[in-house]
Amino acid sequence: MEDIIHLKDVSMTYGRNGTRATALRGLSFDIRGGEYVVITGESGAGKSTLLTILGGLQVPTEGTVRINGVELAGLPADGMADFRRETIGFVFQAYNLLPYLTARENVMVPMSPERVSPREKAERADALLAAVGLSGKEDRLPSQLSGGECQRVAIARSLVHDPPVLLADEPTGNLDSATGEQILDLFSSLHGRGKTVLMVTHNRANLSRATRSIRLRDGEVEEDREFRSSRAESAAV
User: Which domains are assigned to the chain?
Assistant: First the structure.
């Protein structure tokens, strides 16, 4: 497949007046459409910074980021918002659900700008919740759901506009191992349907689901490995 993500000499530096810190140092790599990439590294390696740049939430200090043929630096603010909505699905470790909205209403949030009826939005939300295994729980608040169920709501929300790319920042970090495996099963299923998945994780066991791993160290690519199948050999971990 063609490259869906292209990074060239991407660096990210924070601070000023003598307190500068570099999070990324000249990253360059391409990701093909349909890959399942796990990004690993110690704390402070630059993983989350990389993900926020790919999600259009930060602009790098230097370098080129192109996703789905669009160079992000050339987009105005409103164009970036439209691009994120249509191209990127973002799943956070902390779910980022609104506590006063039901599961259905949380999934409907990204549909707010759309000129379609509330009923149609609700039907789409219910279909997405059913797809992630939450039929019958559409009217529950986040406080009435388990951690794994909250993460499923967040994943359903990320799929509202059927984006080709899913970015996940430690999506199993707040879950027990059994629930985490269920969430990984869901990502594997989405990858099997053609989604390009990039997952940041501290848990190297998650490599078993990937087609490729990129390990960062001090803001640089320390290792970039492809696996022969969708499940890495245990020895590769």
Answer: 34-59+84-236 (3.40.50.300)
